[in-house]
Amino acid sequence: MTLSQRTSIGLYTDPSAVESHRVRLVLAEKGIGVEVVEVAPEGPQPEDLADLNPYAETPTLVDRDLALYDPRVICEYLDERFPHPPLMPIDPVSRAKAKLVVSRIDRDWYQLLGQLEQVERRGKPAVRRQLAESLAASADVFDTGMAYFLSDEITMMDCVLAPLLWRLGYYGVELPAEAAAIEAYAERLFARDPFQASLTRTEQAMRAA
After folding, report:
1. Which site among 43, 57, 104, 191 is 20 to 30 Å from 184 CA-CA?
2. DSSP 3-state assignment of 143?
3. pTM
4. pLDDT means per 10 residues in the chain (209 residues)?
């Protein structure tokens, strides 16, 4: 299946991948109408994906004649293309600081999550422990009295964190008791209508009772 038209925004998305989920969450938070095509890595690939993206991977966003394929680039583009509600600060200093936080989440926590998807079974306990300990070490940052991550309004940082936190239990990552603030923060995010709207059936099943 390919995107039916280029007059609207379309997204090729992996129904289970955290990188695709963060893009879908930004779209949902902004209420952007989008044509979504789910692309499973092991399934048939859309005919035009390789033409749109030299890596033929997801997520890939199509907006008229523009094709974007890096999740950070996609999310920043969406925030600038559809400025309300804003997910990144307007002033350059605060914006740069927010980008650094997103970069650190990618490098410190997303990389470990990616390892859980790839390493052999005997190597998983060490990676699970490393991710749990790394998150727990930052627990005080989640316990500031603000509703969201360092903010009383939803931001891009929350859109990056929420898909990662949603997957912890699925990959067997158990946070220690001292990380209770992270658990509470995660539940606040998960209860939001845009977050629920961002979930695929595959992702819903990750935390099925």
Report:
1. 104
2. coil
3. 0.93
4. 68 96 98 94 87 94 94 97 95 96 96 86 85 97 94 96 97 96 97 98 89
Strand (E) or helix (H) holding 68: strand 66-68
Token representation of residue 29: 């938070």
Q: Which helix (H) or strand (E) holds 63?
A: strand 60-63
Specify the 3-state DSSP secondary structure of 150.
coil
Dist CA 138 CA 118 (whole Å): 25
Tokens of 127: 């990676």
**Which of 62, 200, 90, 203 has its CA nearest to residue 156?**
90
> Quick one: CA torsion of 133, 137, 142, 144, rounded to 10 degrees?
160
* Integer Cα distance of 71 and 19 in angstroms: 6
**3 state SS of 77:** helix
Distances (CA, A) of 31 to 67, 129, 180: 20, 36, 31
Determine the pLDDT at residue 118: 80
Give the single-character DSSP code of 153: S
- Helices 18-29 and 156-166: crossing angle in degrees, nearest 10, is 130
Please, which residues have CB within 8 angstroms of residue 42's CB and are 6 or more apart in sequence? none
